[in-house]
Amino acid sequence: MNDTGSADVGKGTIGKSAQGRELIFLRVTVNVTAPRPLGKPMFKYVGNMHGNEAVGRELLIALAEHLVHNYEKDSEITKLVQSTDIYILPSLNPDGFAKAKEGDCFGANSASGRENANNVDLNRNFPDRLEIKGSPKTVEEELFIKGREPETLAIMLWIVNNPFVLSANLHGGSVVASYPFDDTTIHRECCVEGKAPDDTFFKHLARVYASNHPYMHKGNLCEGDNFKEGITNGAYWYDVPGGMQDFNYVFSNCFEITVELSCCKYPNASTLQTEWLANRQSLISYMQSVHLGVKGFVTDQHSNEAVPRARVTVIGIEYDVKTTHDGEYWRLLLPGTYSLQVSAFGYQDVEIHNVTVAEEGPTLLNIQMKRSIPDNPETDNKIYMEFGHHNYTEMEEILKKISESFPTITRLYSIGRSIQGRELYVLEISDNPGQHEPGEPEFKYIANMHGNEVVGRELLLNFAILLTNGYGRDNRLTKLVDSTRIHLMPSMNPDGYEIALEGDENGGYGRGNAKDIDLNRDFPDQYFPKKDYENFQPETLAVMNWSRSIPFVLSANLHGGSLVANYPFDDNLHGKSKVDSPSPDDALFRKLAKTYSYAHPTMHLGKPCHQSLAGRLLGVLDESFKDGITNGAFWYSVSGGMQDWNYIHTNDMEITVEVSCFKYPKAKDMMGYWDLNRQSLLEYLEQVHHGFKGFVLDTNGFPIFNASIAVAGFEGKSVRSYTSGDYWRLLLPGEYHVTASASEFQSLSKTVNVPSDGTAVVNFTLARVNVGEMIRLSISPTPEKIPTSDPVVPPPQVANSLSGQLEKLLKEKVKKAPNLLCLYSMNSLKEQPEHPVWVLEIGEGAAANCAARKQSVQLGTVSKLHQPKVLVFNGVDRAAAASGRSFLLNLVNILTSSEPDALSVVKSVSMHLIFDADPSAADADCMAVSNVARTRAEEALMQFVEREKFTMVLAPEFQSIGLTVSSQSGLKQFHEKQLADTYLQQLHKLSDCNRGDQKLSTVINRISEAFNGTVAMRLGLSCCTGADQVDAISSSHRVTLLQLFLSARQGIAGVVTSQFSQPLTATVKVTATRRTMISSADSLVVTTTRDGQFWVALPRGEYAVEIQAADYIKKTKVVTVSDGGASQIVIQLSRDQRVGGLPRMVFVILVGSLLLSLLTIVLCCCSCYEKRKAQRKKKSNQWGFQLLQQTDREHMAPVLIDSSSSDEELFVQHSQHQHFKMRTPVRAVQEGSVDSPFRPIRPKGKVLGARMGQYRDDTSSSDELEDFNSATSSSLEEEQLVDLRKSSRPSM
């Protein structure tokens, strides 16, 4: 691009020297006061870096005058000034120049002025490429600027903040053009080339200068010089670490060489004219080289907007230049044909072949890029970005849509539920989702911890879309997903979000969870711990369990309300704010925080948020943070914060990022927040691949779990190896002393060099500590056999002594291997027998299981799938009990060895050994003994097996060789027979023993019958062998035994939970399907453990698994079992809402309808009764004092009376009858009265038809009955009635 106009000189400064002198630069171009036109390359000359090398200083001043003076006079100068933005810095070291003396040709010390005022050589003061790699905006401050001089810092910032394309640094003391690199990894004094990727082009640049110089190209002008063509590789000449030309090439897009102008460093002024004439054309020709190669713009294909930070790479040259903010790029190249590759964040890579570079000028090549992550629904039929707010339901839909659209690289899971029952969703993004890949680091982002801080929630939803849509289309994103297991939790507090209000700038409504608890004050704190662990919120507990179950290396917690990256620690011993509280990894944390802040367009500026009226009143929006980062406690003290808990209790390094000044901004602003943060999210995630990593193995190559990796000087923080022995330790570049240690292994230390551009791999192989031969249990000789049918019982003190020895020995074993062994009592906690039956558990999870037995099961989550449990018991029937104890002790030695097959068992099976199930009883020979004590021991063992849910139970015996099948038929028998046949084949022995009068133990048969899903067999070791031969027996069975134990893994392992992930006690029924070549159609039935787990050992085949729990709907699942492994399933049962076989709602409606109908009938009856009562009353009132109304005879109620009953008794009986109101009976005329109009009627029977006050005998004739009715229908006179009522009223 050629501008027209007047050429002028502008002046500016890049900073000040150590003594305060301005570092002045001159700018020569057309329209110098106007901004640089797009596409116009920037060039710079720097002189007088060494204060006593003065020729360059004067030549550059002369050059500026020459350019301005000859503009529009000299076509070459005119074209150069019009097409180039030229910057000239005559003196980088004015303080040194002030000390230098004219005529000093060889000064090399501080007194000569070579160094700056602080006696530092500025050309040894830059960050060295071999120590630091990256951008000054992302490299930790201590590494990048610590120890740099003011002049060095000033020009470093000038270089990285401006798109210089070409540069030269003018020195003195020789006559030669030197090009990068200036040093090598071995830092030899001379004669070792440090080749840059663009070595050929750098040689060309050096030749351009040297060949246009009348003497330089000769290469021997100064004494001792011998430079072919007058050029040299810097490192080949002499090694210079920390030089400026290397810094330009590595840390910016600028190509720079170093030119030595004169043999004398500070010649007399009289020679300057000669030097000018010798260097003038070289200076001009070198500047013209800025127009070699390819240049252009990189833009968006759809919008034509600039694509900043795109990488332009020449295929075959391992160096790239990056586009400016306006999409400009310049790539210096020699004439020829090239292939270019362009890559940018969020865009598909572009490859352009057959790009021709001419000699006469740059090739203009504009490049358009197509987005790899479309955010327009019209261009993408799967997932597209939605900028706005999404409630819980909408968020759930987006996450499920992503998971369904990209099933091969994503997995959606929940780590628990909020108080109000909302899922705490996590989206995993990895090339192998659902599993930890050994050696691959794990990363997590958590957002929306405070419900009203919503920007992070939306950022993570879009970040998930970015990663998934970009996978396979964007090299950077693909590499990241392939090499990292990424976990994204958009909302840790979904309940708080649901009540938060859009437009809330700095409020607190919805900040806490459903109980209004601030979750970022709810974690265990190192200075102010909680007293009651149960008071932690479910969201907090879920995140804690999740963080402990996965070996996270790095994470960030996204908040809102400010703009800063906050790092640990969050509080201090006194809980005071504005007091810095650094962690042992303080420097690393500051680097991580700066990674996020400097990738953010504004965060690193550290400016306060825009103040609103609310902000001014609260005083919270006027904070400023240097570099956009802060120590948590120095900002304000927070007890119970999540980032501190992660650092102290896990391997994870976590920071807290405030991503927006506005907590709950308007939906229309969300796209802007995404643009501001997406680069930061990506660059911070990439930091998980820095530091060093490796594996901790034993001498057999097997992984060591939970080994400690400690770095000297970081005593407060060590990391632990995971199950595969892999570990990761984030560290800044440098040299460290690292020690790996593990229980029962010798520690090992190594010196580790952490590079600046990746991860060092450091593996540790630890040797097991030789603890000597394990102590064997001493058994007294068996007493002489007495000819009697009763067993020989030793004195009580002998049994007590034997039990005590066994207990002591087992406890000693546990002390030597606490992570591998656990000793516990077979008896329940309520039982405290005099001689407890001890069980030794051997396995990777033994220590954790030991701790779990001491506390109640916490329902709600299943932290880890159990291993299958195998029980080997001895001593129930006392047959060969001594030999059995010796065998089990040998088995402990086998399982705790470092042999690969033993380690495989320990890692995958939980072994439980009962050395003596009846320690109070005497030993016997190979024959089973029958007594009462054995029965008690059997019952105790049966209860133990039922409680522990063993997958396999074995009873060693010395009456046979091989496995004895205990099941009589069915699937279980098929499996046991298969195991028995395999055992004998591997053992290469016959199973025949002369059993004679053997009395076989029945306990294993009882276990087999009672526990249908447990493989229960007798393990025959030999034909009645003494204890002294047990070592040889154990050795002969060793390989076969270990294979048998491993067979317990093959089958189905599962977890049964409710729909709310609560473990359930369920019955699991396993039936072979028709596809399985097993003749039996019966089923194996097991019950789940207290935490909802089950494990069924099975032969290879396909099975129908039916799960049923009380009050839950039964579920069936078909599972295929392969050789050597377990098919793992998770079953969630829904609560059975049916009542009487009907759905609950239907039942409720039916019952309600029935009750309503009954109520209607009752109300109708009551209404009818009241109407009839009213009618009777009305009719009674019409007749005055009429006592009774005549009714039909059939309505007369029977009254049971005795013939001897008095009138009063008769009245009471009658008045209590339901059919009549109780009235006082009136006797019309006493019996025998002459005035009676009635004939006397005497009651002779038991049952009478009665009306109030009137009676008849059931023996009366029909005539008498007619007379009686006639008489009662007569009316009495009023006076007589009153008298009669008075005289006949019964006494109450």
From TrEMBL:
The keyword Nucleotidyltransferase does not apply. It comes from the Eukaryota. The chain crosses the membrane at residues 1145-1169. Residues 1-290, 388-688 form the Peptidase M14 domain. SUPFAM superfamilies: Carboxypeptidase regulatory domain-like, Zn-dependent exopeptidases. Its cofactor is Zn(2+). One of its GO terms (molecular function) is metallocarboxypeptidase activity. GO terms for cellular component: extracellular space. Coiled coil: none annotated. InterPro entries: CarboxyPept-like_regulatory, CARBOXYPEPT_ZN_1, CARBOXYPEPT_ZN_2, Peptidase_M14, Peptidase_M14_domain. Keywords: Carboxypeptidase, Glycoprotein, Hydrolase, Membrane, Metal-binding, Protease, Transmembrane, Transmembrane helix, Zinc. PANTHER family: CARBOXYPEPTIDASE D (PTHR11532:SF62), PROTEASE M14 CARBOXYPEPTIDASE (PTHR11532). The keyword Transmembrane applies. The active site is at residues 260, 658. Belongs to the peptidase M14 family. This is Peptidase M14 domain-containing protein. Residues 1231-1292 are annotated as: Disordered. One of its GO terms (biological process) is protein processing.
